[in-house]
Amino acid sequence: MSGSIPFYQKHHLHYDRGYRSKETQSKVSQYQASSRYSASGSASAATRSRGLNVSSHSGLEESRLSPSPKRAKPTYLAVDKDNQIIGYVVPIFRGSQEFATGLSDTEEARVRDTAAYMARRDLFTSGLEMERSELISRKETMRESAERITLNKRIHEHEEHFKRMNEDSLMHAPEFVIKPRSHTVWEKQCVRLHCTVSGWPDPRVVWYKNNVALDPLANPGKYKIESRYSVHSLEINKCDFDDTAQYRVSAMNSQGELSAFASVVVKRFKGEMDEFLPAPRRAITEVGPVSEYGITFQTHIVDKFGVSFGREGETMSLGCTVIIYPALHRYQPEVEWYRDDVLLSPSKWTHMHWSGDRATLTLTHLNKEDEGLYTLRVTTKSGYETYSAYVFVRDADAEVEGAPAAPLDVRCLDANKDYIIVAWKQPAVDGGSSILGYFVDRCEVGTTHWIQCNDTPVKFARFPVTGLVEGRSYIFRVRAVNKSGISRPSRVSEPVAAMDPADRARMRGTSAPWTGQIIVTEEEPAEGIVPSKPCDLQVTEATKNYVVLSWKPPGEKGLEGVMYYVEKCVSGTDSWQRVNTEIPVKSPRFALFDLAEGKAYRFRVRCCNSAGVGEPSDPTEATTVGDKLDIPSAPGKVIPTRNTDTSVVVSWEASCNAKELVGYYIEGSIVGSNVWEPCNNKPVNVTRFICHGLITGEKYVFRVRAVNAAGISQFSQESEAVEVKAAIGGGILHASPAPPYGITVLECVRDSMVLAWKQPTFIGGADITGYFVDYREVIDGVPGKWHEANIKAVSERAYRVSDLKENKKYQFQVRAANMAGVGIPSLPSNTFLCEEWTIAVPGPPHDLQIREARNDSLVLLWKPPVYQGRDPVNGFYVDIKEADAPEEAWRGVNTKALEKTYTKIKDLKEGEKYVFRVRAQNKAGVGKVSDVTEPVPALTKPGTKEIVVDVDDDGVISLNFECGNMTPDSKFVWSKNYEDITDTSRLTTETKGTKSKVVFNRPGEEDIGVYSCLVTHTDGASSSYTLSEEELKRLLEISHDHKFPIIPLKSDLAVELLEKGRVRFWLQAEKISNNGKVDYVFNDNVVSQGEKYKMNFDKNTGVIEMTMESLTPADEGTYTFQMQDGKATNQSSLVLIGDVFKQLQKESEFQRKEYFRKQGPHFIEYLSWEVTPECCVVLKCKVGNMKKETSALWHKDRHQIKVDEHLGFAEGVLKLEIAQISKKDAGVYEVILKDDRGQDTSTLNLTDQGFKDLMNEVFSVIANSSTPLKITSTDEGIRLYTFVSYYNDLLQVTWHYKDSAIAFSDRIKSGVVGEQLWLQITEPTEKDMGKYAIEFYDGKGGLRRTVDLSGQAFDDAFAEFQRLKAAAIAERNRARVAGGLPDVVTIQEGKALNLTCNISGNPVPEVTWLKNDREITSDEHCILKFESGKFASFTITGVNTSDSGKYSILVKNKYGTESGDFTVSVFIPEEAGGKKK
Predict the structure, then answer these.
(1) CA-CA distance, 748 to 835, in Å (whole number)?
(2) Element (H, E) at 1373
(3) Are 690 and 649 in contact (CB under 8 A)?
(4) DSSP assignment letter at 1276
(5) Which residues are CB-contacts of 279 (< 8 A; sequence separation ≥ 6)?
(6) Which 8-state DSSP code applies to residue 1269?
(7) Cα pseudo-dihedral 38, 43, 48, 49, rounded to 10
(8) Which of 121, 571, 816, 901 could anchor a disulfide with 622, C-beta 3.0 to 4.6 Å?
(9) Are 1161 and 1184 in contact (CB under 8 A)?
């Protein structure tokens, strides 16, 4: 019973200096002034360490020194239920940093003899005597205890000061620098335990086996004990099964004693019993074979019980006769019974009896819980003997045919005041149909009334029972149910009370065996302090029915009556709800019920006491309510092995990744019967089981299932058939592997050698699990005895054999092991000398393997040399030759050293057999060659397939490999860069049947490499796939497309205007199924079919459209079509904001108006102009929907123009021609169509820029009509000219000479004559030679005509100019009659005739008059005059008829002659009158 008291009695204040009593203060002052604690006591104080402080205040001294209180005082002794002292209890205060430990009796006695101990005893005795009358309360007693501990601390510090100054401080108790290590060895092997011990004086070391001192002399050759330089060792030679024990090494000197422990487990290669029995419970303290009677007992167990079979409800007795020699009267050995290595105690189910020579165990009422391996252990003073056999318990007959068997092992996992969690194991027999669930029943202890706890069956093998009465005890049972009925109830559980665990612990008290340790309790609680938050809150168990929380109390101790409130919160919210609203819980564990399955919750806890409720703890992570435990996967390959005439050893591969595995059920069936019987009715938690009770000579097949709380797995594959027959002389052939071969040395140092060997040609009935190496020394050619080099099997085909002797010769042999056992050893190797290699180059590579053999290539793998040489290995060279070629045919595969330990060899000849070898190099050079591989043909075997990369619909990238020639033992082995894949977080391997794949969990650059897959137990089926950076990028793009598939679009979302200005949004998908759907979104809001929006989705064409009658300012924004077709999604958006939206809205309104406009006469093409090639301007428009009554009116500047042309409505074109356009034609032209349906107007603005554009077009036509620029000559000079079809006064032209505009002058002029445009160069000279151009301006690029006036062209033009100039001069200066002479002159006779004419010419011409072509001269009748060189006159003073005739004037100079003719007709007046009459 602990010395602690209830919290409500602990209301004292914390210790403080002010609470010291006067007496205690006096003792402190006495101590400070005392000099008794000098160096004389320091040596003994050094042996106590801090344990002295504890022992001096033990409960024993309290009872001797403390005054008798008026009420019960707490004890500081820890006692068991029989009031036997088992330890001490020391309260630890917040301010104390003491470390408490226990003292043995001898140490305590030694301490009491020291001066320091005597001084303290006198001091405290006198002090306590003075206080006996004053300290009457619990508070004062505890306060004085604190005073003493503080005082002891100061004493200890004072003594430590003198210890450091005393030479005896070098002495110290023994300490283990290196403790002995536990070993597991095979029978007949040797094992050595060693340790290193320090201490002064040198400790004496003794070895114990099961607490019995070992004496090497009593067992010569068995034990060897050595001690050298503080290193102590125990060597056990040729271990047998009896050497399985706990070994203790004890070191002792004058300063103390210390022990260390190590276990040795000796295993057998084969045999029925591999289970290890526990060590004896009672220690044997005597040394050697001498008992308390001085004799050695020999124990023999005879008349043994064998493998037994029983049925539920029956009674079974197991017994053995025990013969102990010599027989002593009334000597009773210790007899113990074990089931599955668990010690059995007498109960209502098990009765034990010892009659003096026979031990009997009676199982009064068999249940499946009683099945197991039963062991009888008989222990005497001289040792112990054991015997074991298995007991099988079959199910009782079901009460209802087809009902399942009863569950078993019902127990309580957790108990609180308002719930108890019950767990059980599922039965092996389901009655022929799967178990639907289980019913849990409860019964209050003391009654016989059973109550069913759940209304519906639960499948999970755990169930929280609620609705209990606090403080009452209950027992439980479970029943299974299937479609046929309900099973018998299970065996009832042990009683358990429904109460808070804290209350249960307080009622049960503290009971523990004597350990010599001090039990530390918490300090006294403090008043008025609100506790802080709990820590380490976690969800320890979560199912769909309940969640269990656990946490640690707040860090600071001493808080009054701490209890807890639990709060929950639905994940994603911040609404916390208190679960236990009424009463807080006392224990740091709580189960929550009534949680919604599938929802995620977070939890937190608050501490509370009388001072208030503290802050909440940190919340847990979100926990989803549901069964987190999965049903285990089916076990792997099952291998049966013959054992006896009625039993078979069945081995299997454990379930992969099974959590909380309970065990396995094994079933057997006679071949052909198809009737399966359970081999065990209680799950076994090993992977090897002996199935008994079989029929001799029959062939059986077996299968296995795994069990955990979630349920029972699927059956494994059936094993091969095995005949039930004793294994001796008739075991299964080739069950164990054939021997390895080709043993070579990879490295050799002074005391060890590294061996390598080749895999056996036949691996047996299962995969090889490891190898065992043996060695023997060869002296003068004579081999010695074999020794085992390794205790634990090595998985690699290389091993370092240690503890060899330098310069000695050795031979080696290797054995392979699998599930069936260890095979026979290989032939002894060659003899190797153990001497250190000193060569500079590396040793040979080893373990060469061939993979992926194809018609033209293969992959070679190897392991680097163990011996590196002087420098590290930096590369490898591979050699190749044909298998039947001579040694000289070796040739290198690579010229540059390979860094990796694999390579792909290409360009092989199909069908040819090749062998390979590898050499390593370092800085010193190329090392030894490896062993040559076996010949391998370059041949692709039938059915060979390659690794295929695949990206599924979820975007998961995987490498897939299929093998068509697998065997039942075959397995897929994946590797990266031909090394085992250790990082399983990046890859997941899945295998189903003949297909296997590796799934990339998070594809990234870390996954780049060569992936290969090898199928075991085949003829080398393998393949590889290189994942490069480019390939990874490509696969990631495909993965993204598959993971987030996109519906392909033929066109993105677009907008167009329909009739009446309606707006159509549309897109077209390439392909979409009938399950496709579309969401129409405007500004993140989904819109639906209605008055404003009209939607249409044509799934045949993939056209998706939405129409609107018109656009308003509220329709400005983003339009999105969101499509979904299964997993595939896509969306397309169109942003209509700002100017884009306004333009669309404006266009929509325009189209709307256009629609209504076109209902009457309207313009199809509005008024426009064109210029004809004749430079005629035509104003035209195209009209429609016209009828006879429709009128068309032309206006210019709002004034009607009368057009004589008839309107051609049939053609639908109206025209107005302007023949010669000029500035006066500028203006605004308008055409109005009108009838009873309405009117339409078209306007054309030909002012300002409009008129300029028109004229520019006219100018362009004129320019294009211009002829090439030509050269002509005149009498004035040279003229350049071009003709146009029409000239307009507004036409702008520019003349250029040598690309520069010509500055006009009197000598160079331009002009227009009609349609001719010319440039006149007067009096040209050679300076005027060059290229001339005329440029027409049309408002655009213009048009330029050019001519080259140089060379011959100039010469010809200039010569013509000179000619014309001379001709012009001559023409200008020649004699000529300028005028004045009439053609006919009629004159009356007698009248005077006077004619005058102008004469020109230079020089002055000569004038000659002629009459009838005869020259006449001047006389009186005819006076001829020529005056001033200009005027010539002809005068006849009186004419007569003779003067009639033809007259001529002839003028002549050097430039020419000209004449003027006239006729004179003279009439007589009478004649004239007659004529008139």
Answers:
(1) 6
(2) helix 1352-1373
(3) yes
(4) S
(5) 210, 245, 246
(6) P
(7) 80
(8) 571
(9) yes
Dihedral of alpha carbons 1398, 1401, 1402, 1404, sign: negative
Q: Which tens digit of pLDDT belongs to each residue from 100-136?
A: 334 444 444 444 444 444 444 454 555 555 555 455 5
Is-contact 664 652, C-beta < 8 A? yes
Which of these, 810, 816, 847, lies nearest to 828 by C-alpha position?
810
| Secondary structure (3-state) at 832 | strand
Pairing, β 891-892 against β 875-882: antiparallel
What is the token pair recorded at 333?
Answer: 């050995």
Residue with the two structure tokens 């487990």: 265
DSSP one-letter string for 512-553: ----SPPEEEPPPPBSS------EEEEEEEE-SS-EEEEEE-
Distance, first Cα to last Cα, the chain: 195
Give the strand pairing for 676-678 and 787-788: unpaired
Backbone angles phi, psi at 1451, to 5 degrees: -110, 145
**Euclidean distance between CA atoms 754 and 747, whole angstroms:** 5
The CA distance from 706 to 636, in Å, is: 10
Tokens 């009715």, residue located: 681
Could you tell me how far CA 433 lies from the centroid of its own chain? 42
d(CA 462, CA 643): 38
Running DSSP on this structure, what letter comes out for residue 499? S
Query: Nearest-CA neighbor of 1453 among 1411, 1404, 1420, 1412?
Result: 1404
Question: One-letter amino acid identity for 1356?
Answer: D
Whole-number Å distance between alpha carbons of 548 and 527:
31
pLDDT tens-digit series, residues 396-447:
888 888 899 999 999 998 888 878 899 999 999 988 888 999 999 999 998 9
How far apart, in Å, are the Cα atoms of 517 and each of 54, 106, 252? 11, 15, 19
Q: What are 878's strand-pairing partners?
A: 918
Which 3 state secondary structure label does DSSP give 697?
coil
- Token couple for 196: 């290193």
In tens, the pLDDT along 785-833 reads: 889 898 888 988 899 999 899 999 999 999 998 876 788 899 999 999 9
Q: State the Cα–Cα distance between residues 1076 and 1069, nearest whole angstrom.
A: 11
**Dihedral over Cα of 156, 158, 162, 165: its sign:** positive
Which run of H or of E encompasses 925? strand 925-929
How far is the C-alpha of 475 from the C-alpha of 1206, rounded, in Å? 120
Going by DSSP bridges, is the β-strand pair 473-482/485-486 parallel, antiparallel, or unpaired? antiparallel
In this predicted model, which residue has the larger pLDDT, 620 or 71?
Answer: 620
Give the C-alpha separation, 785 to 796, whole Å: 25
Q: Provide CB contacts within 8 A for 535, sequence distance 6+.
A: 551, 552, 554, 555, 617, 618
Bridge-based pairing state of the strands 212-213 and 204-209: antiparallel
- SS3 of 1251, please? helix
Average pLDDT, the chain: 81
Cβ-Cβ contacts under 8 Å for 161 (sequence gap 6 or more):
none
HSE-up (13 A, CA, CB side) for residue 370: 30
Distances (CA, A) of 757 to 793, 798, 832, 878, 978: 15, 7, 14, 20, 20
Strands (E) in 449-534, as ranges, are 450-452, 462-466, 473-482, 485-486, 496-497, 519-521
Nearest alpha-carbon partner for 730 in 813, 642, 668? 642
**Distance separating alpha carbons of residues 497 and 1102, to the nearest angstrom:** 71
Please give the Cα distance from 357 to 359 (Å, whole number).
7
The bridge status of strand 577-578 relative to strand 563-570 is antiparallel
Cα–Cα distances in Å, from 686 out to 58, 108, 339, 768? 49, 49, 15, 19
| Residue 456: both structure tokens together | 């519906």
Could you give phi then psi for residue 212, rounded to 5 degrees?
Answer: -110, 125
In angstroms, rounded to a whole number, what is the distance separating the alpha carbons of residues 575 and 71? 51
